[in-house]
Prior knowledge:
Helix content: 25-40%
Number of helices: 13
Largest sheet: 10 strands, mixed
Structural class: alpha/beta
Order of helices and strands: EEEHHHHEHEHEHEHEHEHHEHEEEH
Number of strands: 13
Distance between the termini: 32 Å
Oligomer: single chain
Shape: globular
Radius of gyration: 20 Å
Amino acid sequence: xxxxxxxxxxxxxxxxxxxxxxxxxxxxxxxxxxxxxxxxxxxxxxxxxxxxxxxxxxxxxxxxxxxxxxxxxxxxxxxxxxxxxxxxxxxxxxxxxxxxxxxxxxxxxxxxxxxxxxxxxxxxxxxxxxxxxxxxxxxxxxxxxxxxxxxxxxxxxxxxxxxxxxxxxxxxxxxxxxxxxxxxxxxxxxxxxxxxxxxxxxxxxxxxxxxxxxxxxxxxxxxxxxxxxxxxxxxxxxxxxxxxxxxxxxxxxxxxxxxxxxxxxxxxxxxxxxxxxxxxxxxxxxxxxxxxxxxxxxxxxxxxxxxxxxxxxxxxxxxxxxxxxxxxxxxxxxxxxxxxxxxxxxxxxxxxxxxxxxxxxx
Length: 362
């Protein structure tokens, strides 16, 4: 058995590649937490997770003080066992963001090792359903952008052959949201999917009101209209509109996804591999969604999610928000509006180790 001999963690700050704003926040930097796990056969697996500005040092402390000391001596191929051992050791802090983000960095490193040992890419190791996944753009839809800028970004996406784009909503006046969306829909026509994202900014009543105003725009989904813990509100909204309700990026347990799906509160599942605790629980959520005949369209982390969305039958979209270009040697391959999962063994991300080392802050 490949035995874990050593594990280390570090924190790297990445500045945003472009200004990003939504209804509740600005994305100021990505705190990226790395974990490297070494086994006695000489392989090294690299995993990572992230926060968008706060909490990175807390995740790092959880890893260094509590989780990483438990790894030496464990069998790296028994990923379920390792995950549950670490999870059980943190009962006082589960379920929550810090623990899930820490677990994710370890778990993705173990999956990197698993695929490296098999000399296979992650998308095949995790299921291998297909290699290509449709791509949609978020970078052209931030809330601070003017109508003209939104339209220009939407047209660029169409020119590049992408099948979808996402616009942030949650302006103080509903008429402003409608104006922005109408301009984009008129610019791209009816052959491109347009998604909207409210980033948990609305009350239940306001979300119902806005959904009704958006109905004529033929939207692909209405994302995070309400706080993530308001399952009843999302269920009520889903019953009131024909627009699919998308949730998941702010959910940290499999059980929460189960409740959403059982209550008909999720038409699209946007499970985030870092926030759910790694590839191991990500796959469980994806298969759970498949049992409910619901598509998975993961949030952010496109360099990793392209392989996971390709691995499962219900992976529908990959979200285009590039954020790792400063510390990687290659970029995600895009062909005819589709993201291609890398064929490189392991996670498929070619890290620039010198660039990472230069940005380590802890």
